[in-house]
Amino acid sequence: MPLSTRGIDAQDCNDAAPEDRAEAGDHAWDTLLELVTSRPKRAPDRKQNRSKRTEQQILNAALRVFARDGISRSRIADIAAEAGISTSTLYEYYKSKEDLAYDLPNSHLVSFFQEYRAAVVGKTSAREKLLLYLSMSADFAREHADWGRLFYLEIWPSVLVSETELRHSVDDFARIARYLIDEGVRQGEFPAGRNSYETASLLLGAVNQVIITWLLYRRPRNLTKASAEMADRVITMIANERP
């Protein structure tokens, strides 16, 4: 999945006067966090206002079915049965299982970003923010394993995501990592001269592999500890890299 930092211009911070850089960086960081925690949920095309309770039943059922069977093998009828409603009722909320599959990750991602936004308050080091971000992403996948299977095993690798609104939320996930790498360069914690896109790919790839292995095999047993150690190891390698 492509990484991006659309809407956040790190160069503006680099070009500012030294006394203004910290303030500019804080503003850009706050702007990014506000963006990722306020993505609107896609509004399904419905004939009329429907029950929020039934909609949540459908989403919860779809998450269980997708996590168990995968998107390609799942059927609308399976999701309706899991939700305890008729197939025709489900179609009043969602046109297809793909609509459901791409709607599901958004609410969880926004919840994750909100949790991270609260936890990162008071931290000033880019390295510390980045380590917390990567560790929390693994812990969130552990706490929401069905969602984790859908997101990491089905959604993230899918080229079809680029054709949906979900692409913005997936981009947000990578955008934060890339922003913090650029911030680390500005702070002198990471060496300049490296492509931040490639560095973000390296970091996320390493931690995501630990998450995926856990989702598939429940190994390592302590996902939170293992992912934090992996993140710290890769970040240390990046910090010690020669430009």
Question: Could you describe the 3D structure shown?
Answer:
The protein has 243 residues and is mostly helical. Helices cover 70% and strands 0% of the residues. It has eleven helices and no strands. The chain has helices spanning 10-15, 18-36, 52-69, 76-83, 87-91, 97-119, 126-143, 145-155, 166-187, 196-217, 223-239. The radius of gyration is 19 Å and the shape is elongated. Residues 1-20 and 44-48 have low confidence and may be disordered.
How many strands, what sense, and barrel or not for the largest sheet? none
Oligomer: single chain
DSSP E strands, number:
0
Secondary-structure-derived class: mainly alpha
Number of helices, where a helix is a run of at least 4 consecutive DSSP H or I residues: 11
Mean pLDDT: 86
What is the helix/strand order?
HHHHHHHHHHH
Shape: elongated
Percent of residues in helical segments? 55-70%
Distance between the ends? 26 Å
How much strand content do the residues show? Answer: under 5%
Query: Could you list the spans in which at least 5 consecutive residues all have pLDDT below 50?
Result: 1-20, 44-48
Radius of gyration: 19 Å
Defining traits:
243 residues, mainly alpha, 70% helix, 0% strand, disordered N terminus
Summarize the topology.
Layout: H1 10-15, H2 18-36, H3 52-69, H4 76-83, H5 87-91, H6 97-119, H7 126-143, H8 145-155, H9 166-187, H10 196-217, H11 223-239
Provide a concise account of the structure shown.
By secondary structure, the protein is an all-alpha fold. The chain has helices spanning 10-15, 18-36, 52-69, 76-83, 87-91, 97-119, 126-143, 145-155, 166-187, 196-217, 223-239.
